[in-house]
Write a structure and sequence with these properties.
The protein is mainly beta. Helices cover 6% and strands 42% of the residues. It contains 2 helices and 14 strands. The protein has helices at 78-83, 106-109, and strands at 4-5, 20-30, 35-40, 50-51, 56-64, 67-72, 88-92, 103-104, 113-116, 121-130, 135-140, 146-150, 158-159, 164-166. It has a 6-stranded antiparallel sheet. A 6-stranded mixed sheet has the order 12-11-10-9-14-13, with no helix packed on it. Strand 2 and strand 3 (35-40) form a beta hairpin. The longest helix is centred in the middle third of the chain and has 6 residues, at 78-83. The radius of gyration is 18 Å and the shape is elongated.
């Protein structure tokens, strides 16, 4: 998974333990020999050989203009491959490369409580989107309404594995 970069005032602290992180999802079967098409969220999926707690073992991966095609040891035919549509491929958080200062994985932000810089509870980070100009956090308030905040230092001056602070004027 490609880390996103920005200069935070505090380094990230992983408070998530060793929870699974999704690196790809099966979007369909490819051919008749059990290969699957993947939507990949990682920079280098080949760095991992086992997914979903060892349930799937990567034998081969190739990238085509139409996307990634994978072969797993446990998938012998097209029928089995078709049944995997929608299956997320995950690895333990500890299997990911260590992060440098100012880097984070989206999975580290999702689920964090969000507070204002005045200490007011704002809600929970639900999604991290990127529409081309940088990451945007979607935060759900306790009443169920959502608002978006850019993941930039002027909007999110502080964050760690325990909470995310939203600057005044950015709290929707």
């Amino acid at each position: 998974m490609s880390p996103e970069t920005r200069p935070p005032p505090t380094p990230p602290v992983n408070g998530r333990g060793d929870s699974p992180v999704t690196l790809a999802v099966v979007i369909g079967a490819h051919g008749v020999a059990g290969e699957v098409r993947l939507k990949v969220f990682a920079e280098d999926l080949k760095a991992h050989k086992a997914f979903n707690g060892g349930a799937l073992t990567l034998k081969a991966l190739r990238v085509t203009p139409q996307g990634a095609i994978a072969r797993f040891a446990e998938i012998p035919d097209r029928t089995t491959a078709e049944k995997l549509r929608g299956t997320e491929l995950s690895v333990p958080r500890s299997a990911l490369p260590p992060l440098g200062e100012g880097e984070y994985y989206h999975a580290d932000l999702i689920g964090l409580p969000a507070v204002s810089d005045a200490g007011e509870v704002l809600g929970t980070v639900m999604l991290v989107e990127n529409f081309g100009a940088g990451d945007v956090l979607e935060i759900e308030r306790p009443d169920g309404k959502r608002f978006m905040v850019p993941m930039r230092p002027e909007a999110v001056p502080e964050w760690n594995g325990e909470r995310l602070v939203v600057a005044a004027g950015w709290a929707g």
